[in-house]
Amino acid sequence: MSVKYNKHFLAILVLLFTPFSLFAQAKYEKATFAGGCFWCMEHPFEKLEGVSEVLSGYTGGQKKDPTYEEVSAGATFHYESIQITYDPAKISYSKLLDVFWRQIDPTDHEGQFVDRGLQYRTAVFYHNEEQKRLAEESKEQLDKSGRFDEDIVTEIIEATPFYKAEEYHQDFYKKSPRRYRAYRRGSGRDKFLERIWKKKMDTEHNSNKFNKAAHAELIKKLTPLQFKVTQESGTEKPFENEFWDNKKEGIYVDVVSGEPLFSSHDKFASGTGWPSFTKPLEPDNFIEVEDRKFFMKRIEVRSKHADSHLGHVFEDGPEPTGLRYCINSASLRFIVKEDLEKEGYGEYKKLFE
User: Fold this and answer.
1) Is 40 among the residues known to form the active site?
2) Tell me, what CATH number does 347's domain have?
3) Which PROSITE patterns would you find in this protein's record (predicted)?
4) Which of 31, 34, 37, 261 is an active site residue?
């Protein structure tokens, strides 16, 4: 066998025995952002089409493999950050930058909202010269837009080693949805972002898309039971409702507005006779209200955009959240996974792949 033939033969063997996953990974790129508390930075990016993974971690500092306690002490000079793995054929780096700016206060050089200290500074960590150029251009455009009264101080820094944070920090918004929402509200982040971006919050999940119809239209659109439950905070009968025993794969949306609420992945058999879920699909689409009717204290769950009564949340659910979202079927519309694209919810297809 000739040397030339040998080389070709070896090349073919390499191609045949290299796992396909290694080739698939070649098309993905990394983006790294620091925007204060990393709990609040994962969720906005994880729901984007083209994003395959978002990790919380630490970067920009001096110590290898730092712990949360060390970073929090401020001695390592690391930033709390997120690292995004994305497919540039499906989502551009410019789009990621646009989402990033809408999560932070870029004029604060001492932290973010209630969180103060070096670890909560904001920064874009670029991985190549093209990312650097785009980041600098987007920063300049934002500065010139006049949206902020003060100068943009977010740094554009060359990427340094990224260290994944402890497991309990990963997907915190999924593991502890109630604590996550309470933290966001209490930190002042949500109030600030709503004030700054109120006129341009036209994202895929905003209130402009998920409007509530007028009262007269709702009467025509909804069944008497759906109207009673969603508009009058009624309760349907257990075991005699549409979805309590539904085992199909798909997502549940608000019957009034269509805003995404739950995934079938998080549905479980609670034995109560109502659809029960361990966590929301989109935590930002929920409002919790203290309910003291019937001489008891409960937490009512309502949809954010339509203000529909959905049900209640209890702390007697299974792991990992320990929560049980007990929801009325009459508040929900179910979209089977095969129809997600057709119904305008194509971004959720990856949940079932």
Assistant:
1) no
2) 2.170.150.20
3) MSRB (PS51790)
4) 37
